[in-house]
Design goal:
Layout (H helix, E strand, L loop, with lengths): L3 H12 L3 H7 L3 H23 L4 H11 L4 E5 L2 E4 H15 L9 E5 L4 H11 L4 E4 L6 H10 L2 E6 L3 H9 L9 E3 L11 E2 H6 L19 E8 L5 E7 H13 L7 E4 L6 H14 L2 E4 L5 H10 L4 E5 H8 L14 E5 L3 H10 L4 E6 L8 E2 L13 H6 L4 E4 L24 E7 L14 H5 L2 E3 L7 E11 L5 E6 L3 E4 L2 E4 H8 L5 E9 L8 E8 L9 H11 L8 E4 L14 H6 L10 E5 L4 E4 L2 H12 L1
Parallel strand pairs: 1-11, 3-4, 3-5, 4-8, 5-6, 6-7, 10-11, 10-12, 12-13, 13-14, 24-25
Antiparallel strand pairs: 1-2, 8-9, 14-15, 16-17, 17-19, 18-19, 19-20, 21-22, 23-24, 25-26, 26-27
EC number: 6.2.1.3
Protein name: long-chain-fatty-acid--CoA ligase
Family: Belongs to the ATP-dependent AMP-binding enzyme family.
Length: 625
């Protein structure tokens, strides 16, 4: 099963082949050696923490004792020291201790990017309570499902007025769940509890470690939700062990306690709320936090706060590159950028214009047991999957042949799968060690967990995690993200579930069926949402366009609302009644290819308007700017 390169390496070692000869035979070995050196040092810290029985909250409290006056969070021109955040976290713990919850119980927080998110998370960690990061963009059915799937005993919402209205819409459906509201006087509302008043009434006394006695490395630290093929958000379990390992990537890329990370992506995501937040806590660094990404304010913030690193998603980089050039474009103290989704077509332009010494593109999913990161500055790559690295990795990663139409792994005559050859694309899978076969990716339904596992891949009895991602493997074993398979695509840095969007659309009584998919728009990252709709007999298209627009706006976050709609006379389905999307994806929203009535989302008119050839050409030109 091992590639011939692995066998050759063994032979070379036996006969004492020189390093120069190795590099001649395998020119990519230098990248492997450098990565192994960096990863071993990074893993050594995590191993030591685990050997010492340290959890994330223990490391935070050590940060507080070691550097109490150091800035932990910089937010809207104010510095929040480790000591101050700890005081607030202690208040949260004191208040939460009155709820009678036990270690491992879940409290959901629906808070925007602000320090309150962080000290609320830390305060609950002091009691061993798992924290569910709720996406503040979701509404109604998806919100109810999220709260119930993580079995939230309490919900804490932020001070944003819109958050209150979103929760108020579903209050009757979660009537048994206490809801605490930050930054709002709700004394006159019997269904809500005033968080700020209650928090001020308790003392910030340090909580003893005995309060979280019973927490193990398998105990959930938090739940981070991801959109999947089931159509609704799923709570991914981030246990205490995984929370510690987020620091490995930051250590790999050279982030130290003297560094400052600028992040403006949502904390409910694994990049900001996992890699950045938990990694910075573990290392003892500083985070500059912004409520929302702003292209015009980005570099001004980076300069003002002396950020040495920033975290990105690909679309952010494209927005920044679209700004008019400025004399201060390359004036900053940034050493490196870390993130995912930066496309190869703008990589070098972005790096050169803004004078970014290193770009560390990562690959992985919230549920995965491991991830990759491009530490070689190879343009477009998100890491390496090589035979040598797999030999030293306890959780190896492989790329296997996949059916491009169904997204299913290809099984050959012997019933097993095959690794792709260099220069080919395939599906990334991650090994599940035999002693971790019981591992759960999501809280709740075991059936949902099992769907992410591929068994008997290379031999009977083995098991691998299905990433759902297609990557390209080049001749030097660097990988490049290509696309997602199945029923999920990415748009605006978010995962969009086609099933969820289709379910929202078919809730309208005049829509008989909906086939949702992603289409490529030149000059943008990911795929934009598009829906093929089959209407009930006798429905007039012109009379329902505003209704569709309003229904999507009311029930879906902006990134999940279809940008394009086509009205089909019938739906093409497989023998098992699954929607056939390949042809629809190929045709996209091009009126010269689509014979069906075609419409685009017009926010200025709050409706869907007919997509003519002229408007299509204008959209193509605009998207490339």
């Amino acid at each position: 099963m091992l590639p011939k390169e692995t066998v050759l390496f063994g032979t070379a070692g036996v006969v004492g082949t020189s390093v120069l000869a190795w590099r001649t035979l395998f020119p990519w070995i230098g990248d492997d050696i450098q990565f192994l050196k960096k990863s071993r040092k990074a893993m050594a810290m995590t191993d030591k923490h685990i050997a010492d029985g340290k959890m994330i909250i223990d490391l935070f409290e050590e940060d507080v004792l070691r550097t109490p006056k150091k800035s932990f969070i910089i937010f809207e021109d104010r510095s929040y020291t480790y000591e101050l955040v700890n005081d607030q976290a202690n208040r949260v713990a004191s208040l939460a201790s009155q709820w009678g919850l036990k270690v491992g119980d879940t409290v959901a927080i629906m808070i925007g990017n602000e320090p309150a998110f962080i000290w609320t998370y830390l305060g609950l960690q002091k009691l061993g309570i798992a924290v569910a990061y709720i996406n503040y963009n979701i509404k109604r059915k998806a919100l109810v499902h999220s709260l119930k799937s993580c079995e939230a005993k309490v919900l804490i919402i932020g001070k944003d007025e819109e958050l209150f209205h979103t929760v108020d819409e579903i209050r009757n459906e979660i009537s048994e769940t206490p809801v605490y509201v930050q930054g709002k006087d709700v004394k006159h509302k019997g269904d809500y509890l005033p968080w700020d008043d209650l928090l001020l009434a308790v003392l910030p006394a340090q909580v003893t470690k005995s309060a979280r006695e019973g927490v193990t490395y398998e105990t959930p630290s938090c739940f981070i939700f991801t959109s999947g093929t089931t159509g609704l958000p799923k709570p991914v379990i981030v246990n205490q062990r995984k929370a510690l390992t987020y620091a490995v990537i930051l250590l790999l890329i050279g982030f130290r306690e003297t560094d400052i990370m600028y992040t403006s992506t949502p904390l409910y995501h694994s990049m900001a709320g996992g890699l950045c937040l938990m990694g910075i806590i573990t290392i003892g660094g500083t985070m500059v936090l912004r409520r929302k990404f702003s292209a015009r304010s980005f570099w001004e913030d980076v300069r003002k706060y002396n950020a040495t690193y920033f975290q990105y998603v690909g679309e952010m980089c494209r927005y920044l590159l679209a700004l008019p050039q400025h004399p201060l474009d390359g004036v900053h103290k940034v050493k490196a950028a870390v993130g995912n989704g930066l496309r190869q077509d703008i990589w070098e332009k972005f790096q050169a214009r803004f004078r970014i010494p290193r770009i560390y593109e990562t690959f992985g999913s919230t549920e995965a047991m491991t991830s990759t990161v491009n530490t070689s500055n190879r343009v477009g790559s998100c890491g390496r999957i090589s035979p040598i690295l797999n030999r030293f990795d306890l959780i190896p990663k492989y790329i296997i042949d996949v059916d491009p139409t169904t997204g299913d792994p290809i099984r050959y005559k012997d019933g097993h799968c095959k690794q792709v050859k260099r220069g080919r694309s395939g599906l990334v899978i991650t090994g599940i060690p035999k002693n971790m076969q019981h591992f759960k990716f999501y809280k709740g339904d075991l059936h949902v967990n099992e769907k992410k596992v591929i068994r008997n891949v290379f031999e009977e009895g083995d098991a691998y995690f299905n990433s759902g991602d297609l990557v390209h493997l080049d001749k030097d074993y660097f990988i490049y993200f290509k696309d997602r398979v199945g029923d999920t695509f990415r748009w605006k840095g978010e995962n969009v579930s086609t099933c969820e969007v289709a379910n929202v659309l078919t809730a309208l009584d005049f829509i008989q069926d909906a086939n949702v998919y992603g289409v490529q728009v030149p000059g943008t990252e990911g795929r934009a949402g598009m829906a093929a709709l089959h209407l009930r007999e006798g429905v007039n298209i012109s009379e329902i366009l505003e209704d569709i627009y309003k229904h999507c706006s009311d029930n879906l976050p902006g990134y999940a609302q279809p940008l394009f709609i086509r009205f089909s006379q019938s739906m093409n389905v497989t023998a098992t009644f699954k929607h056939m999307k390949v042809e629809f994806v190929r045709e996209g929203y091009d009126p010269s290819l689509v014979a069906d009535p075609l419409y685009y989302k017009d926010d200025s008119k709050k409706t869907y308007c007919q997509l003519t050839h002229q408007i299509y050409d204008q959209l193509q030109i605009k998207s490339k700017l």
